Amino acid sequence: MNARRMRSMYLFGIALNAVALVYAAMDGSPLFAVTFGIVMVYLGVRYWMITNA
Asked: pTM value?
């Protein structure tokens, strides 16, 4: 898979997790919100690794 497609997939994943984090926080589910936050950090690190490769 080429790097451009991977970057777009990571950005899409980060955006989806951001939406899920907001809904989980609004719903009063802090454990799910923290989990989505951790996944966002992981995807952000992976995105950073792809862009600097």
From this structure: 0.88
**CB-CB contact of 50 with 13 (8 Å):** no
- Decide: helix, strand or coil at residue 2: coil
Burial class of residue 17 (count of CB atoms within 10 Å of its CB; 0-12, 13-18, 19+): buried
Low-confidence ranges of the chain (pLDDT < 70): none
Positive or negative torsion for Cα 7, 11, 12, 16? positive
Contact assessment for residue 43 and residue 10, using Cβ atoms and an 8 Å cutoff? yes
Write out the two tokens for 6.
């991977």
